[in-house]
Amino acid sequence: MARAGVVGRTQLRRGLLGFNRSVKTSSRGEAVEAALVAAIAGKNAGQNTIATTPSDLSREPKIGRIWTGAMYEDFDADVTQRGTSIIVKLGWINRKRKYYEIQEHGGVVNTRRGAIEISGMHALTNALLATQRHLDNKGIK
Known about the structure:
Helices cover 56% and strands 18% of the residues. The radius of gyration is 24 Å and the shape is elongated. With 141 residues, the protein is of the alpha+beta class. The protein has a two-stranded antiparallel sheet. A two-stranded antiparallel ribbon has the order 3-4. It contains 4 helices and 4 strands, in the order H-H-E-E-H-E-E-H. Helix 1 packs antiparallel against helix 4 (123-137). It has one domain (32-137).
């Protein structure tokens, strides 16, 4: 009789450990999925900011900072997992240009017409806020 109790506890312990592993795996999978969706939301918000922020460089009033499309196309998102950490990167990840930085934060651009003061568009801030909003809604910090 005593032996049957030991076998029962061992099976129960194994079952609980297996359940614990499956919950961890499931939670990690849900967190990765939430991070991917949050990254897409962030990328969309950043690109939307580029497309809708008025340009200071145009002689005529112009909505959007898309001229060649490079700054818009280069704005990207990436999700990586290292161990138990999930990292979301947003912005100009693969191609950084000084021009993008001036458009983002503001500054002076020298043109044929002379120096023009550029107001910041804050695409990175808007991307981060959209990403955080999605993760907050999922209960992830």
